[in-house]
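Lecture notes, continued. The same structure-token format from the folding unit now serves as the input rather than the output. Read the line below as a description of shape only.
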């Protein structure tokens, strides 16, 4: 990152990176977040909307930065705190109201997949475009008009003419399909590949959720396809994402 900073400065760009190495990040996510956190902080969480941030006291710890965000599709916060205070903060949260509990990356991954959120390196990378990934909304009109950004030649063409493949969601039953699972049509032809997949704890009833890229010709919602899980063809349907509605907290 330091090397990239110097490269950008040599190009005349106004870029400065600050490396903060003495802080930790604690994420508190889910429907009881407010119940758990509000008694511990001097910040009025009812006035802190999604993707906004402020600094205050949490569990008697000064200088905590609370940001209303998280990659789970749920209402939640991420708390930046000095490394020396991390353990005390976590203990205070676990002993607060709302029955909070420790959760690992597996829980977060199933939640972000249910919310239809991409994981970089799996669902998007340097070989995919925002158009293919159905993320064209991230490119503002001004950038589309001026171009000049990395990949602009390909991306602007796809915005105008469409892409050959598209990221879509899938619902299935039976054995869960994981990343790199082949997607087949009724004749057994490969028409795509999964990038993420897992059982859905939130939906339940043995439902599996997954996402991946398929040929544009089979990307329409409701299209029946098959997932090749080991030596079995599992029925699936192209489905709308998010699979579980998001619960972000927006100010009115």
């Amino acid at each position: 990152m330091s090397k990239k900073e110097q490269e950008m400065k040599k190009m005349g760009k106004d870029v400065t990176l600050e490396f903060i190495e003495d802080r930790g990040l604690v994420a508190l996510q889910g429907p009881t977040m407010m119940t758990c956190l509000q008694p511990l902080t001097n910040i009025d969480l009812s006035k802190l909307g999604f993707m906004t941030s402020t600094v205050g006291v949490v569990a008697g710890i000064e200088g905590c930065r609370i940001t209303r965000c998280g990659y789970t599709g749920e209402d939640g916060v991420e708390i930046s705190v000095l490394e020396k205070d991390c353990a005390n903060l976590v203990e205070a949260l676990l002993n607060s109201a709302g029955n909070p509990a420790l959760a690992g990356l597996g829980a977060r991954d199933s939640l972000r997949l249910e919310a239809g959120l991409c994981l970089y390196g799996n669902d998007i990378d340097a070989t995919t475009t925002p158009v293919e990934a159905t993320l064209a909304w991230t490119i503002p009109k001004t950038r589309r008009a001026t171009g000049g950004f990395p990949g602009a030649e390909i991306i602007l063409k796809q915005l105008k003419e469409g892409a050959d493949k598209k990221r879509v969601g899938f619902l299935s039953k039976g054995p869960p399909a994981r990343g790199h699972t082949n997607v087949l049509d009724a004749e057994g032809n490969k028409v795509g590949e999964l990038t993420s997949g897992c059982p859905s704890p939130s939906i339940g009833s043995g439902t599996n959720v997954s996402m991946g890229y398929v040929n544009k010709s089979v990307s329409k919602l409701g299209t029946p396809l098959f997932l090749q899980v080991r030596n079995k063809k599992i029925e699936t349907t192209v489905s709308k994402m998010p699979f579980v509605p998001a619960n972000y907290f927006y100010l009115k």
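Point for the exam: Residues 161 and 232 are 36 Å apart (CA to CA).
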